[in-house]
Write a structure and sequence with these properties.
Layout lengths: L1 E2 L4 H17 L8 E7 L9 E9 L2 E7 L32
Antiparallel strand pairs: 1-2, 2-3, 3-4
Length: 98
């Protein structure tokens, strides 16, 4: 996966997804939320995807992907708030796709 950085449009799109994530999962203002637009290297993946990680506390990391560029994401495409627990990535979990 190779991240794509640079344009103001991309920065605005990433910030918009970050703020939607904060609101959707009722995260405090100081919660760490990372949003990255990436170009997957694995066959069969879309040309661009947006990967979102957030921490609900110091040791609880959550993770989800949307298989499109950040600029194309609509707020209602984020997982529903009741899925917050299901998005927890167990400590020590590493995979080549995320």
């Amino acid at each position: 996966m190779r991240a794509s950085f640079g344009s103001d449009d991309l920065r605005h799109a990433l910030e918009r997804v970050r703020e939607w994530t904060r609101a959707r999962f009722s995260l405090p203002e100081d919660a760490l939320i990372l949003v990255v637009e990436a170009v997957p290297k694995l066959p069969g993946f879309p040309p661009r995807e947006t990967v979102i990680w957030f921490w609900s506390d110091a040791s609880t990391r959550h993770h989800f992907k949307l298989f499109k560029p950040a600029a194309d994401i609509a707020e209602d495409e984020l997982p529903p708030s009741w899925m917050k627990t299901a998005l927890i990535l167990p400590e020590g979990t590493m995979c080549s796709c995320c």
